[in-house]
Amino acid sequence: MSHLDPQVFATYLERTRWFGGKGRAYDVTDVSTIGTLPGEPPLVVVHLVEVTYADGSDGGEAGVELYQVPLAFYEHPEQRLDHAFVGWWEDPDHGWVHAYDALHDREAMALWQRAFDDAAESPDGTMSSDGLVFHRLPGHDLDLDAQSSLFSGEQSNSSVRYGEDALMKVFRKVTPGRNPDISVHEVLTEAGSTHVAHLYGWLETVQDGEPVQLAMLQQFLRTATDGWELALASVRSLYADLDVHAHDSGGDFAGEASRLGEALREVHETLHEHFPAERRPASAARELADAMVGRLEAAAAVVPELAEHTGRLRGAYDAVAGLGDLDVQQVHGDLHLGQTLRTSIGWKIVDFEGEPAKPLAERQLPDSPWRDVAGMLRSFDYAPRVVQRSLGIEDGPDAELLEQRAQEWAERNKNHFLTAYAGGGLSAEQQTLLDAYVADKAVYETVYETRNRPSWVGIPLQAVAKIGAP
User: If you count Cβ atoms within 10 Å of the first and of the last residue's Cβ in the chain, which end, N or C, has fewer?
Assistant: First the structure.
């Protein structure tokens, strides 16, 4: 395919949900063709689009990013795909052709499905085609009659469901190296974990001798319900009758919080067993504390309201600096209720990719499991406040009683989750680490809310005000 106009890609990126450069000045500085899917029609070509930002870097993000854009080419317009139209291109064999984002096209998505199936028939579980390598794990036969359906709600990636058989996640922003979402799922799948969607396979290419992982195919959890939505439903049930305490509410979530804590503990235990774990020297505790202080100082420049709390926050971080050796291992890295699914057979944890804004090399590093625990505790704290704002009742006549119920709900579920995870009470060292990670997460949230939802910054600021308070 010739004459791939970078400006056409730039225009299309602005229309998507998954492009992370909105609001920043950038140029599309390169478009490379990395492979063609086997079989056609349609002709499906995978491109990597290089984006270079005028400001170099922002908040730790690289000044250059790569985005994956698979295109389906047709000789004639496909009106059914008008919503996914990208542009026209000149092809030496076909003249001018029409290009569409392939993930919106069922005919195109069937090519991925068949390629993964062909890989399963290979003795080594791989199938190569024009620079693309499909990998399959044994144990599941794909339903080739299942039709694809693109999920509409995702932000940083794109997911396609194949009936009730499988789910393919396509990584939109890609980086050379192994994606933790694939490597962690592979290990947990082979270990027989019941708390993840099993991995069926993945797609990658090679750039300059390094793998660039493009997509993963996994089990579709047919009975799954989003954990965040379940928590919000529980809060709404509580708020429906403010005379009822959280422990008496018909939508009490505490049992689910306990089961979720047990699920996370089992996942952490499996990861500890199958990934290299480290006991870092006491100097690592000082480095961790210094990193938290650095993030606090950067946040205070964005959120002036943090100034009155910095002394107590530093106290939480200084306590970490005084700890001895630190145990670190493979963790989730970006855990909250939105990264969980409740199925008919229990809780599943999803999206082990880590924080998308962090460089891949940083996301691959081991960390303390208390980071994941802190993320879940902050999520429990958020849920009742989000419901208040979504219903527009945070400042109403029952505001004081609402806040009492919000605190009851959050503390009840945090306690049940934490007790189930830890198997009892926490040691002094564990509590020190957890307090610091909770503070670090809340500080991050103040920056996020200030930049994206300023009227919500009070939620994390309320948590910050309690940290280290007498």
Answer: C
